[in-house]
C-alpha cells in the first residue's frame, strides 16, 4: 500500500532533477511535519513567557513592554490563519534539501555564538530575540537531524511517523497551554485553584532557561548531522576544503555586517534585512560551488523565513523593546556608580 502511494507521487520521470526531493516524498512530508511542530512549540512557549512577564509587571505596577509597543496584550493567531501558516511551513521544510538545511543550521549556530559573545549587557534579552529568529533554523535543524539519524533504517517511514505523531501531540499541548494561559491565568493565579496556573506562577521564570537549554541540545545534534551530511557530497579532503574555506569566510563577514546593522536599524527591519543578506550570501556561495538544486532550495528558504518571521513581528518588537529598556537601565546604573566611586577615591 505504501509503495503504491509513493508510486503515484511525482518522481524524476515527471520533474527535472533539481526539482525532485532528496528522499521518499512520504518521509520528506513527515520530516517537514516534525519541523513545523517544533516551530509551533517554540512560538507557543515564547508567547506564554511574554504573557507571564506582562502579568508579573502588571502585578508589580509596572508598564509592560508589550503594551508600550503595541497597545494590546499578547494574543494568539486565529485558527484558519495559524493552520495555513503551519501547512505552508510544513511544505517548505519538505522541499528544502538536507544539504541546504545543513547550511542554514551551521549559519545560525555561528551567528548565535558570535552574537552572544558580542552582546555584552544585552545578553539576557538577546537570547529571547535570538529564539524568535531561530524558528526556520529550528525546523531545518529537526529535519536535518532526522535525515541523519534515520539514514539507512529499514523501517524509516515508521520511525518518522512515530516522531511526527509525538511532535503533533507536543504542538497541540503547547497551543492548548497558550490558550489556557491567555484566557484564565490571571483569574486562576489569583484564586489559586488551577494546577497549571499555580505551577506557572511559582516556577514560570524557569520557562525561558528551559527553552534555551532545549534549543542548545537540538542545535548541537543538528550541527553534527549537518557536518556529516555536507561531507557526504565530497569525494576528497581537497574538495571539502575548497567548499568550507569560502563558506567560513562568507559567514564571518556576514556576521560582522549584521552585528553592525542591528545597532543602526529598528529590530524588525534589521532582522528582515539580515535574512536577505544571509540567504543572498548562501545563494552566491551555492552558485560558485553548489548545484542548481541548492540554489532552488535557498530561494525556497526565503519563503520559509518570511512565513516564520512576519507572523511573529510582535515577539521581535517585544524582545527588542525589552533590550532597549534593559540597556538604558544598565547605563543609568553605570552613571550612578561612577560618582560614588569618585567620592570614595577622593575621601581616601
Total of helices: 14
**Helix residue percentage:** over 70%
Number of strands: 0
What's the Cα radius of gyration? 23 Å
Find the structural class using helix and strand composition.
mainly alpha
Strand content: under 5%
Order of helices and strands: HHHHHHHHHHHHHH
Global outline: globular
Mean pLDDT: 76
Give start-end ranges of low-pLDDT stretches: 1-15, 63-72, 326-331, 338-346
Query: How can the largest sheet be summarized?
Result: none
Terminal Cα separation, in Å?
87 Å
General description of the model:
- This protein is mainly alpha-helical.
- 82% of the residues lie in helices and 0% in strands.
- It contains 14 helices and no strands.
- The protein has helices spanning 2-8, 25-59, 65-70, 79-95, 98-118, 123-133, 135-149, 156-191, 195-203, 207-231, 237-262, 267-289, 292-309, 313-347.
- 36% of the residues are buried.
- Residues 1-15, 63-72, 326-331 and 338-346 have low confidence and may be disordered.
How would the blueprint of this fold be written?
Elements: H1 2-8, H2 25-59, H3 65-70, H4 79-95, H5 98-118, H6 123-133, H7 135-149, H8 156-191, H9 195-203, H10 207-231, H11 237-262, H12 267-289, H13 292-309, H14 313-347
Helix pairs in contact: 2-4, 2-7, 2-8, 4-13, 5-6, 5-7, 5-10, 5-11, 6-14, 7-10, 11-12, 12-13
